[in-house]
Amino acid sequence: MDIKGYLTRLKLTTDSSEVSDVENNLATIKSAIDINSLHDQSAAMIYQLFKEYDGYLIYLRFGDYQFYDKIEDKKGTNVFAGSSGSQIAFTAPEAEVIEYDLDEWSILDYCAQNTTSFLLALLPVIKFLKLEIKERSLMKKKELLESAIVAAGGKRYKRFYEQFFGDWL
């Protein structure tokens, strides 16, 4: 999947007409990409996102987090998103995406196995956040959370994504 395909998928994810189709969420994500080519395109995708949508990414929010307008170097990492108390960074596009404490620069959480996995894991998160309160059933929450965890790379990343789905899982 290239960046235009990702953003098309992101637009479809946030479209309220697709919100009711939770059961096929993970299958849809997997069918939208060639899983075998993730590592080949991983490096290009995050940089392409910032290159092609320079100045617009700051409008992409997920929970308390938002993308920055550019990738910044900080202590040997590439910081690209953050919240009021943390920043999300990677050392190389194919390396793990990690959330760091803003002040102490210590690891708060592990977000995804690589940058492409992180971007893919955001699709179910953003889909859930766009649901109206009355549409947020426990079953939908569990399905979308599981989709995000699988896309991120597995259970190691569960804690990071749970925060977006509320307390009653």
Write a short abstract of this structure:
The protein has 169 residues and is of the alpha+beta class. 42% of the residues lie in helices and 20% in strands.
Largest sheet: 6 strands, antiparallel
Mean pLDDT: 80
Oligomer state equals single chain
**Strand order across the biggest sheet?**
1-2-3-4-5-6
> Level of helix content?
40-55%
Counted beta strands: 6
Distance between the termini: 31 Å
Total DSSP helices:
6
Instruction: Decide which structural class fits the backbone.
Output: alpha+beta
Order of helices and strands: HHHEEEEEEHHH
Radius of gyration from the alpha-carbon trace, in angstroms = 15 Å
β content, as a range?
15-25%
Inertia-based shape:
globular
Question: Top keywords for this entry?
Answer:
six-stranded antiparallel beta sheet, 6 strands
